[in-house]
Structure formats: C-alpha cells, structure tokens
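Thread: Modeling a multi-component assembly for a lab meeting

Hi all, long-time lurker, first post. My supervisor asked me to bring a structural picture of a complex we are working on to next week's group meeting, and I have zero experience with this. I have the sequence lines for every component (609 residues in total). Could someone generate the structure of the whole assembly? Inputs are pasted exactly as I received them:
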Amino acid sequence: MYRILKDLDRRWIFLAMFLAVAIPVLARLVFPEVVSKQAKMVFDAIDDLPDGSNILLAFDFDPASQGELLPMAQAFTRHCSIKGHKQYYMALWPLGSPMVDLSIDTIEDEYPDMVYGEDYMKFSYKAGGEAVIRMIMQDLRGMFPLDSKGTQLDDIPMTKNIKNIQDMDLIINVSAGDPGTKQWVQFAATPFGITTVSGCTGVQAPQMYPYIPEQLAGVLGAIKAAAEYEAAIDEVYPSIAANKKAQEAKRRMGPQLVAHSMMIVFILVGNWIFFVARKRGEA
Amino acid sequence: MSDTDKPNKSNSLIWGILFVIGGLMLVWSMSTSRTGQVWVTPEHHAFSDTGEVNDNNDAVWKSIDPTAATTTDITWTTYEVVPVSELIPAMIDSGDATLSWSRTIGLWLSAIFTLFILSFLVGDNPAYKFAEAMVVGTSAGYVLVISIWDVFIPNLLGKLFPAMVQGWSLPGMDASAPAELLYIIPALLIVMLLWQLMPSGGWISRWPIAFFIGVTAGYRMIGYVEADLVAQIKAGMVPLWVTGDTGEFDFWLSFNACLLTIATLSAMVYFFFSIEHKGLVGKVAKVGIWFLMITFGASFGYTVMGRIALLAQRLEFLFGDWLHLI
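Re: Modeling a multi-component assembly
Sure thing. I ran the full set together rather than chain by chain. Output:
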C-alpha cells in the first residue's frame, strides 16, 4: 500500500478532486447553513438602514474570481433591491464592469419595477485605484462627469443631489485584490467614517478581519460566508428564498464539504507516507 | 521531474480510455438531445416620436405596439435565452424559439477553452498554451478599449475639448462647459511617457514615471499610516477585563481580549531581530510563530475554499449550460 501510494501518479489525485466536486454538483447537494455572527453583521448593516438609503456597490473583481464572488455580489444586489435602497454601482477593475452588468441584469429580470436612474445606476470604469476613491470622496463629478451610458449626473434623478461619496449611507465592496477592500478602508471608511462592509475572496479574508468592527461593519469571507448571507436573507425575505437563482452560494457549498473532507484525508495520507519514508530512510 | 510526474504507460492508457469515453458520451448526448445549443425568443420593441420636447429640449418618445410601427418609428429586436427546462417542441415548431448560432458558437468556445485550461492538469500542452495566450490577448485588448472610452476620452479629451467630444462621441456631455486647461499637464505627461518608443530621448519617459511613483507612494503612505498603523494600534489596545451591560464579568470576551494581546505581542517579538531569540525572548517568539502558523493555516484553508468554488462554478457551467445535465 505504501509503495502504491508513494508512486501514485498525481493525476489520480486530480481525478479524485474532480469527482469530489463534480458528483455533488451533478447531485445538487445542498446543506443547511447556520448564519454566523459575521454574516449577520453584514446583513444587519444593510437591513437596518431605512428603505431607500443610498448605497455604493463597488465591485472590484473580474471573471477569474467570479465563481467565488459573484454569488455574494448578486446577494447584495437582491438584498438592496428588496429593501428599495438606491444602488450606485462602480468598478475599479476594467473587467469589473461586466460583473456589475450581471447584477444589473438581475435587477432588470427580478425587479422590473426598478428604474435605471431612479433606483439604480452605474458609473463607468476609471483607472487609478486609490486615487479614484480619494477623489470621489471629495468631488464625484471631477472623476465621473457622466454615468456609464454617457448621461450627465445632473440629468439623473438619483445623482443630481449627490456631491460626493460622503453622501452615501453605506459602501459595499466586493473585492478580489488591489484595488479593493483595503483601499476602501484606507481612503473612505477610516478617514471619513463611512459605514463599509466587504465581501472578499478567501485569500484576502484573514487580512480583512482585523478591520472589524471599527473600520468595517462586517466581512463576508469567501463562498462559505456568502452562503450564510444567503441564508440570513432567506430567513427574513421568503420571496428571495423561493428564487432558485438566489441560492447559488449555498449550492456551491455541497462540493466544498466533499472536497474539503477529501483534502483532509489526502493530507493525513501524505503525512503518513512522509513519516514512513523517513523511517525507512527514503525521504 | 519527480517520479509522480513521469508518464506511466498503464496510467496513460487509462487516461486515454477515459478521454475516449468522455468524447463518445459527448457525441451521443449531442445526437440525442439539444446539448450545447442555445435557443432564444425574439422580443420586438418600437418607439414613436410624440412631437413634444422635455425640459432639456430633447424629443419625447413613447413606447408603441411593434406591429403598428411605421418607417418613421424606431424599432429593434432583443433576444431572450430560453432555459432548457422551458424549451418545448411546440415553441420550436411555431417559430417562437429559434436556434441562436452566435450564442451557440460562443457557448462552445467557452466550454472548449475551459477544457483547454483544465488540460494542464494532465500535462503542459499546446491547447493549454493557446488558451492561455487567448486569455492574455483578449484581456489586454478589452482593457485598452475600455480605458480609451471610459477614461481617456471623458476624463482627458472631454475636459480639454468638451464641445468637440460632445459632438463626436459623448452627446450627453455638457458642450458649454469651459475647457479645463490644467488637464494639459496630464496630457503632456502621457506624451512624455510614450517618448520611450522614440529612437532617442527615452530618458524623458522617466519623469512621468517618477511623478507617478511619487504620487502613488504618497497616497499609499497616508492610507497605511492612518488605516493600518494608527487605527490598528488603537483597535489592538483593548481592555482585558470585559464586563457586560449589567456590569457582570464576561469570560469569553475577556479571554478573546487576552488572546488578541498575547498574539499581537508575541508575533511582534518574533519580527524583532535586534535581540537574539534566546531565553524569554526566544520563548515568546516561539509562541508568536505558533500564532503565525495558525494564521497561515487559516489562509491556506480559505485559499482551498476559493479554488474549489472556482472549479465548482466551471463544472456547473459545463454540466448545466453546455451539457444540460443539471
């Protein structure tokens, strides 16, 4: 057994991992989610705001992180829409703009009563990262003379009275790297005290938790927290719970359970092989 | 190349069989179902000029019945994708649903490129390299185009020549706005940056690069000092004896506060290299290492979760959108 495992072609490991993810996907395995304190903090930050509050949704990720971050971005959109919040979308990544479009598609499909320019709008991509954030905190029109459709902000009902991002009640940032949550904390949340929540990739999550609760009102770390956030929304809003499209993160947790269990087995077996090899003087 | 990386004859045979079975299943699925097809339903729109104008002196158009549209009206058609679960033969027979060749080709390209990228797991190969080059090339092209239209034109040309830009590309822009001559400076910096492409005088490009690095360093220094240094020191100075709203001692909050303090101090001692890590300092540094290792373990766990989520999403695409298995 030792010799077989030691000489095992690593492609068998890949195949095993493929099956560990593929079978739950095909079987549509979904497990119940318990809402953690972190997910509840994010939910409350959005839900406790009065209906119709101004919310900036900055989607700083691209298709490479879509599988991990889009479910939580869509959950933010649905939660804000059902609360009737005014949604201002922007992206500091050039490939983040299509990610915003997916959320706008969700609004148009599922909340047809919402009107562009009155309930939601989109700023186009701007280069500059933290420089953009710093500027729009003081002067929105200096950086964004027009929205993404080429209309002046003064001609859009929901932006004509917005001078800068300090007029927002909440910033929601979905982040896959730089620029992302760190820059929003550094140039918006900390110096101006604007309530900010973040949804970020697993890689970033450990770096974001120290900002809670002073600089961030909550963090959704990776797909697990996204699933918990979906569960928190489902508990309060049954219409979203009935929407199959709104269960994407929860659906993605089935493969996680199986694949993580298998990873643990692999790590244990790998360590066993290592120690046996060392004992036999083969390491 | 390690032993486990070397192709093994029997393993290669098994892998070959697996690929052939996969290919046969795909052909069978395509011949017996609508695998890999995208069907759409058309939706017609029409708008008619009312002859009125709004406050901005723009013509007011109203939505009308598309079948009643005349040549003076504006008409167009959009197409909605029909989910496979909702596609019935009657929709196809009546012409309500039509096969969208462009979307079908796009779907197949997406699926094939996904498989090309995943093929790297079996070994480096030309298909993977081709897909990798395509990703880099299309991303660079997309970023270039979006930067020109979303940044260069509205934020530079639009500031310097508002009337020209309004008439040429952005009709929504305010043509009466005065030109902001301060923007000549960034325009000049762009020209200086591009000077690197000239046969001589490449040193001119160092000036805008120096300016850019200086501004970025200044921005970042302010951000880090305020948000990561001062604010984090403040957040780390917590009371170790925590009481609840009623004044009772809260054990777990106090425990967390103590743990936070010990972890912060011991990790900082580990990075304090001016004193040799011996005796008490060495022991505290070892505690710091343990906390650091726990942090790295948490990061690794999160990273694994992220990667599995990405794989699950691609498999959902392959099994759902492409093969219609789910």
